[in-house]
Amino acid sequence: MVNVLSCLLKRKVTADVTVRDEEIEALGREIRREVDAVFGGSLAIRELDTGSDNSAEIEINNLTNPYYDIERFGITFAASPRHADVLLVTGAVTHNMVAAAKKTYDAMPTPKFVVAVGDDACNGGIFAGSYAVLGGAEKIFPVDLKIMGNPPAPKEILAGLLALMRQAGRGR
User: pTM, whole model, 2 decimals?
Assistant: First the structure.
């Protein structure tokens, strides 16, 4: 029989499971440099779902998990569009979401950037031509960058954000 007290008092053995993806680390270092140079140290993102199937949202949410941890690169998600630099749009724009999407965009301070994430947000995707769908995000506001994929992987989203920052840096 196992002595319960000895189990509680003995030294715990755990494995060091620190795994780093060097490609993500290199991408993160570049993102950090661009965030510091272009956005003054932090980039705030507001995610807007205009009628998606949640596949792009899952990949965006993965950016906040311990594996990607984008906050260490200076990128955060804002609860309000009034605090956001970038609007990340997912999903095809449905007719019911047009007014809310425009209000969200109008509430953002300038300069503001719009990124369409996923095929649906870029061009309507599989929902293009549907009676309930207006189309991609460019139908209601200017889109600065499109990240294609159904859904795009977190690494592709990071690369797209880096491209956006470089584009914004050239515009200074």
Answer: 0.84
